Amino acid sequence: MSWSDWSLIFFVASWAISLGMIPVVVMRKEHPTTCLAWLMIVFFVPWLGLGLYLLLGEDRLVRKRLRWREASGQQFDQIVGEDVSSEGQGGACLAESASGIAGDSRKGVLARLGCAAGGLPLTEGNSLELMIETGDVIDRLVADIDAATQHVHLLFYIYEVDDVGRRVSDALLRARQRNVECRVLVDDVGSWSFSGAMAAELRAAGVEVAACLPVGLMRRRLARIDLRNHRKLAVIDGKVAWTGSQNIVEDTYGHKSAGRWCDIMARITGPAVRDFQLTFLEDWYAETHLAVDVERYVPELPHTGKVTLQVVPSGPDRPTEDFQGLVIEAINAAEHQITITSPYFIPDDALLCALRLAAARGVQVDVIIPRRSDQSLVDAASAFYIGYLLRCGVRFLRFTGGLLHAKTLTVDDSFGLFGSANFDVRSFHLNFEINVSLFDEHAVRELRWVQDSYREQSDEVSLAEWNRRPHWKKFATNVAKLLSPLL
Predict the structure, then answer these.
(1) Cα distances (angstroms) measured from residue 352 to each of 346, 349, 360
(2) Which of 116, 220, 372, 478 is 20 to 30 A from 173 via CA?
């Protein structure tokens, strides 16, 4: 065949791909902006667009998980208990009766939204200790593992083969020598290096290791734009829980130019630990199909403090609109101040509108982001939203102390939120995340103190400075924003 014949075939095939993908994308993608973004890619670069869509656009992992949960619903209910249904009806009733929100209709609404999103109720009588130094967190976590007498459950997006990973693994090996049951659940993409020799060593010692949402090599290379289990969670003996934004990894992980990672973690005791345990058991059962004895792993726990909080797991197998609604409703309830910290900031239209309206009614809205993250494309897309909100009166501050990886939200002194979810489309709608809502004013003030420490290490971005950016940066920003629904 001649060159002209091959050119014609290529031309016809390209148009066939572009036209053929229209019904596929339109029927499969619920959100209009995401649908348009995929159609734009397919029409401009049809062959590349088709390949990317086959690798990344299809939510096969979610549909598989949903089918499995539907088929094994009775067995799942026996494991996690009736109050952890995806509808969260029982949890909503418990949330309304909690004395921690008695008489406060705004908190009642937030608690009910949290129940609807994660299916877990509000709990009282907890103690919570916030920690921001990676070394201190690992020291205390290792100490808790060394003190374990029954079981250790770990669920992390990144479990790296480095000094931190080695310390935690050694603690697990010591626990196995004491006949403590150990289970480790890691994301298959985020912890790909762990899945080799280190995982084999732990399995040889009797540690149960499983991977979340296993994928092939090609998808692993494109991890940032794929569906993942992004949760960070540890439960020791069913009595102590750890959660937040920190992974099992050194704070120098990743791109050196971004600086050391600055995270926030919480050590929690009290009745809320039961809900962290149930979240782990749900993920463990979803990946391994191995049933466990709930009564053994989820004991009744006494009050250990005065903190009222709510565990809010979220993900594409739950009503993601309710988690987004929780964030939006909290912002809408603000009277004086809103502070957000996030490494990646790509808000959807609803969050963008809520922040704009908050600033318009006189609320001080501060968004603290790193000077540079480890995702250049995300930084470029984020720049568009920064410019838009600066013009609306929202303050942006760039953290200069490293890669600010803490994901936090405080509203006045009444409500706080922290955990694994970024303030972007992917965390709201695709990734499996776990967050904690705080309804205790003392705990919220502690979270604000952490945010203030980040603020002190940040430089405010002025609108005049933003407008003076080179034209090529402005152009790159506007191009990158087109991909924001996919980031």
Answers:
(1) 9, 5, 12
(2) 220
